[in-house]
Amino acid sequence: MDDVDVVIIGAGSAGLAAAKTIRAAGLSFKLLEAMGRVGGRAWTSDQHFGVPFDIGCAWLHAADRNPYFPEAEAAGWTLHHHDMNVDHLYYRKRKASEAEEAEMKAADARLFELLAAHQVEEGDDDRLSALLAKGHAPRAAATFAGPMDFGADEDEISIRDFQAAADLDPNYFSKEGFGALVAHFGADLPVELSTPVRKILWDVPGVACVTDRGTIRARAVIVTASPAVLAFEEIEFSPALPDTHFGAFFDLPMGMLTKLPVEIRGTRLGLQPFDDLLIERLARHDIYFLCFPFDLDLMVGFVGGDFAWEMSAAGEAAGIDFVVDRLCNIFGADTRKHVARAMMTNWGGERFVRGAYAAARPGRSEARAALMQPVAEKIFFAGEHLAGPLIQTCGGARLSGESVARQVAALLAIG
Ligand SMILES: Cc1cc2nc3c(=O)[nH]c(=O)nc-3n(C[C@H](O)[C@H](O)[C@H](O)COP(=O)(O)OP(=O)(O)OC[C@H]3O[C@@H](n4cnc5c(N)ncnc54)[C@H](O)[C@@H]3O)c2cc1C
Q1: According to the UniProt record, what class of enzyme is this (predicted)?
Q2: Distances in Å between the alpha carbon of 199 and those of 64, 205, 216, 241?
Q3: Which residue of 147, 274, 287, 319 is most buried, as measured by CB atoms within 10 A?
Q4: Residue 175 falls within a domain, yes or no?
């Protein structure tokens, strides 16, 4: 393979954006992607339901700062503004009373007040659960903030990390799919698909990236693989990375969000398109449904955190049965007659992703800043896990890719 100025590892949102920025700076590059498609965690597929369905990211978060949003508008995408607001709350099989719904919303608001006021001192318990205990908020207040949004349970979330993340309103959905939008964004880029980078040598002039199809030398490399992929040492660094960086991969473990969409034909179950339905259960087995988005025949179930990992281990058939049983519990046994196709996403099983998105370990939120420092001015990291206040989001990943690529271009211009 030809030598280039910059190798970019990964053609997800961050890698595509980095490649576009490097190209705009007039530098040569190679964009290497392990999977047989672009987009990474941005992936729209019509294979399951005959209509575009986002297996990965779906909400265009922080639309007022999200570079994909104006592009979706310009492309004539069908957009729907949808900020989270629990319309239907159940405690197991029982519909919550109005008072209980109000209590839950108040507890949710209280959690954010507590977060805004909280100063983490050295030696403090940095787990979100500690804050909940202090504010005596019911655990349900953290269902969205924790497993459904952060992909992690409240005792695995760092308060500092959580505080640094932005409020993601306003949020939009697109009918055509966020994954399709990202693929459209990267469509004019040359990508070497099915080309995992196995090793990066950096005790040579520049770097040498070893793949099964040959080795590419470059002046710098931008690595956008998730921290879990890096912690599993899918890419070997030679010599080994400094502890600051290698340790940071482990301090940014992946949270999990699993989607369980079920096609429901011939009834809307008394629900409106885009209603939010939450079933609070016991021991973190909560499940959220986005109801009939765009009036499609789809109830999209979501489970997050440890329960989502458990569900992945139980397998798709068990996951689908769980969701259908929960719907039957609430809407009656007849609901089963309306169930058609269904599926379960499996991001934990994607070798080159290994989870949904990173959440810093309590007490370890500084790992993000550590990874933002280049190694020897030639190994740079980018991706959703390094996206500042827009961490965990696809728009944030793109901004991270662009920003790091600008940094690389500036450095190579001097060197
Ligand atoms: C279920 C789910 C729901 C989500 N919902 C939302 C949402 O609604 N809104 C939102 O904004 N975000 C959401 N996200 C998060 C969003 O999808 C990610 O933050 C974003 O897509 C990450 O982009 P990235 O470029 O950082 O990483 P990735 O998309 O993971 O891209 C990295 C790429 O690197 C490749 N790679 C890894 N190792 C190698 C290697 N050795 N060699 C070559 N290539 C390699 C991978 O195959 C991958 O394509 C969701 C994610 C999941 C999983």
Answers
A1: oxidoreductase
A2: 39, 15, 11, 12
A3: 147
A4: no
Contact 183 CB / ligand 1 (< 6 Å):
no
Q: Could you tell me if residue 52 is inside a domain?
A: no
261 and 334 together in one domain? yes
Last residue of a domain, one of 329, 349, 369: 349
CATH no. for residue 90? Answer: 3.90.660.10
Inter-CA distances, 390 with 116, 163, 387, 414, Å: 17, 12, 5, 30
CB of 347 shorter than 6 A to ligand 1: yes
CA of 400 to the centre of ligand 1 (A): 13
Q: Tell me the residue range of the domain where 308 lies.
A: 84-168+257-349
Q: Is 383 in the pocket of ligand 1 (CB under 6 A)?
A: yes
Q: Do 267 and 161 fall within a single domain?
A: yes
What pLDDT digit, counting tens, does each position of 187-201 carry?
999 999 999 999 999
307-365 pLDDT, tens digit per residue, is: 999 999 999 999 999 999 999 999 999 999 999 999 999 999 999 999 999 999 999 99
Instruction: Give the pLDDT of residue 196.
Output: 98
For residues 217 and 145, membership in a common domain is answered with no
Whether 75 maps to a domain, the answer reads no
The total number of structural domains in the chain stands at 2
Q: How many CB atoms lie within 10 A of CB 143?
A: 25
Residues 261-295 have pLDDT tens digits of 999 999 999 999 999 999 988 878 999 999 999 99
Find how far residue 92's CA is from the centre of its chain: 27
| Any ligand 1 atom below 6 A from CB of 358 | no
Distance (Å) of CA 376 to CA 27, 193, 310, 380: 20, 28, 40, 9
For ligand 1, pick from 54, 57, 236 the residue to mutate: most ligand atoms within 8 Å of CB: 57
Burial (0-12, 13-18, 19+ Cβ within 10 Å), 120: middle
Q: Which phi and psi (to 5°) does residue 349 adopt?
A: -90, 0
Dist. CA 123 → ligand 1 center (Å) = 33
Residues 164 and 262 grouped into a single domain: yes
Residue 382 alpha carbon, nearest atom of ligand 1: 26
Q: How many CA atoms lie within 13 A of 62 on its CB side?
A: 18
Tell me if 173 is assigned to some domain.
no
Identity of the amino acid at 411: L
231 shares its domain with 159: no
User: End-to-end alpha-carbon separation of the chain, Å?
Assistant: 23
